[in-house]
Amino acid sequence: MTETKDISDPSAKEQFILYWGDMGSQWGVNRSVAQIHALLFLSAAPLNAEQISEELGIARSNVSNSLKELVGWKLIQRVPVAGDRREHFVAETDVWEMALLIAKGRKEREIDPAIRAIDICVDQATDDASLDPVALKRMHDMQEFLTTADRWSAQMLSVQKSKLALLMKMGDKVLSILKLGGKDTA
User: What SS3 state is found at 4?
Assistant: First the structure.
């Protein structure tokens, strides 16, 4: 007799994978890619594409494409398994390293092209006498914002993980030291 699984009551692992997939789609990442990442993140042993496909109920071709994307983001890597010629994969499990890899990847794929595009627009706008000065100012403001955000991001990505974690855990204390949060009595 085959054991039937009650899909209305997923395990904690299944729930994590489902939530991670949902969060991924909200962040602009394909749901399958995010679910595969979650499965590998939680897995104690390397998994091959067939195992991933079977466990998640995702088409093998979708798994292959998703694995390529995750390898490109450097969130997973191929690892050899003795006695098995198939490719196996493991995920980066250090959450700080994972966050830094995602931040670096998003910067390269999204922020850098946006900066280049805005720079081109500002260069063109500077020579366009028909452009409303308000529009030109707003383009300059956007360019300045992106440049500042990019510089800050580069600084944060160069901070040691342990120091970055400490900085983030300090939270409001940093604001109070800088007198940025709440009421300023000075």
Answer: coil
